[in-house]
Amino acid sequence: MSNQTKEKILETATRLFYFQGFHGTGLNQIISESGSPKGSLYHYFPEGKEQLAEEAIVLSKRRIGAVIQHFMNEFGDVGAALNAHILAMADLFEVENGLEEHSYTMMPFGLLAAESAFMNERLRKVCGDTYKYWESIYYTKLIANGFSDEAAVTLSKAVSAMIEGAVTLSLSQRSNEPLLNISKVIPALLAQYK
What we know:
By secondary structure, the protein is mainly alpha-helical. The protein has helices spanning 3-20, 27-34, 38-44, 49-74, 78-91, 110-119, 121-144, 149-173, 177-193.
């Protein structure tokens, strides 16, 4: 068995967890859709579905963090960076039937996070750490733009919450309007704390 098999299982599980949630995704489906032998799942993930979900969250933490960091690096101004980041997510919802599954690597994982908050302490903590990590990227950019520590803490948490909420609404409405709305509000929010 190779690392390629492990990656294929993890990629498949991550995609399914995003769109079906932890409880809506079965190990047999992961095995079937990844095209992997049944024994390979437990070989790479001996603790089963919980370990697989934890590794999927950590993978998302890094991937989405890299996307956020890309936008924060691309623009000197934090407002422009946040706007570009939010509009890039909004673009994912412009497909005819809403978000396509290939776009999941850029999307926050609200379904998995909401499920785990009540059902699984291990996964709740990993989700919480993930949100803190993303917030830290916003925080660093805000500090670099001259915001006070207190303002940067408040704004980084608010921006993260707004994005997560807008993504959830965009998914349920099959529309990018909620994301477009927060992109319009961000400049006024930043100005209030500057």
